[in-house]
């Protein structure tokens, strides 16, 4: 028997229950892994709160790292003792142990420890598809990034700078502005006292930007459109302030034949070969030092409810890891 967090109804952090669960033997194409570290992400809050309508009762969390304990029939690429991590999986990472499809598991290379892996898989793979696939950032680009001091933001800022781009980032206070600047952001806009649209126009001499990466949603999205140059991309990959209102597509024509997309990691990483290629690129930029993964908060896994409350209250920066 092992323990895991489950929730039986949507709601606040208090709905998370630490329960004893029984794991069977891994089936064909499955492995049983023992977690050492689990990543905390805003999508966990969406799932727990019922935003995405997860079938209940449910586990929680889709990012973690640990050790393979046992593999099921037909599994040839993994063996007990292998260090693995994942960032795109069925829910259930908030657990001491779990069963997981092996096509979601990625072997960890030497030089990347378990805590770092748990902090970077979902966020780092998200950044990979955002800046290497959804809109391919290139040298000389100036881009706009909301929540530049968040977990995705700190990775994206560094990686985009490594590619030769100039990053304009929005943050809520001066402390987060300093943090974002330490991680690739060239210009940090404190949105609580500055109009970010006006600042983007000023910083780009009126040319605006080819892409906006927006994980905030309701509070920023329409203004994000005003920051885009003609034919620009509004990439909405989260909604920490709430869902955006229904969009009049005529606005996209009025504002310069803009593109809007709502991508997810599950789509980009659905095929095993794509997931492996994305992970290899992520591992490479981390091992090279071009992207540094900083874990700014850790909590025992049993304190997941407090971690959720702190994340929702924007008390955290960068990556947060739950230690098993």
TrEMBL record:
Occurrences of domain Enoyl reductase (ER) (ranges): 11-322
Protein name: Quinone oxidoreductase
Family annotation (InterPro entries): ADH-like_C, ADH-like_N, ER, GroES-like_sf, NAD(P)-bd_dom_sf, QOR-like, Quin_OxRdtase/zeta-crystal_CS
UniProt keyword Oxidoreductase, yes or no: yes
SMART domains to which the protein is assigned, alphabetical: PKS_ER (SM00829)
Statement: the UniProt record of this protein carries the keyword Phosphoprotein: no
Keyword vocabulary terms for this entry: NADP, Oxidoreductase
PANTHER family to which the protein is assigned, alphabetical: QUINONE OXIDOREDUCTASE PIG3-RELATED (PTHR48106), QUINONE OXIDOREDUCTASE-RELATED (PTHR48106:SF13)
